[in-house]
Amino acid sequence: MIPQSRPQQKREFSEKYLRKAGVTDQLALLGVRGYFKDTMGEIGKNDRGIYDDAIFVISPSAYVSFNANTDPSYYRDGVAVLLPGLYRYRKGKHGISKGSGYPALRPATKDEALPVMRDGKGISTGYHINIHRGSNNSTSSLGCQTIPPSQWMAFQTLVYEQMDRYSQTTIPYLLIEA
Q1: CA dist list (Å): 91 to 45, 74, 156, 173
Q2: How many domains does the chain have?
Q3: What does the pLDDT look like over 34-48, one tens digit per residue?
Q4: H or E, element range at 147
Q5: Is the CB of residue 173 less than 8 Å from the CB of residue 87?
Q6: What is the span of the domain harbouring residue 43?
Q7: What is the three-class DSSP state of 20?
Q8: Model pTM?
């Protein structure tokens, strides 16, 4: 399920969270888990399998919001949920193991490891927690951060263009809880 409208949040609010986290890059992403939790799915709950989250692209020349999913598509023992925090991403491909890779964002750590909460298992390490295109029938996530297909090309194009414009090989992604 994709919300009827894009997330609305004042730029100053987003910039405050980035400053508090110590982000000094010109370009950054802010993910807000549960952004639509009171207007989509079960009231007061951040649901899985729907685009009830938000990602904001923030730079001196852009401030654009996108609907997003920051959770796995469903509950299953061992499935990863990225912990709130500050992470760095780089340009890369998603789906390359299947031979059908497309431009996406990948963790910029050496082994692409990030801290996650695993259903039924607790906190551990997750690998390849990408930011990529979801689908119309599912959020297409086993722990990744996904954008609805109708917004993906605009998101990916904007982020890549802004990374080039500001000469950033990596981009900070701050994930917070609503």
Answers
A1: 32, 27, 9, 13
A2: 1
A3: 999 877 777 877 788
A4: strand 145-147
A5: yes
A6: 11-177
A7: helix
A8: 0.94
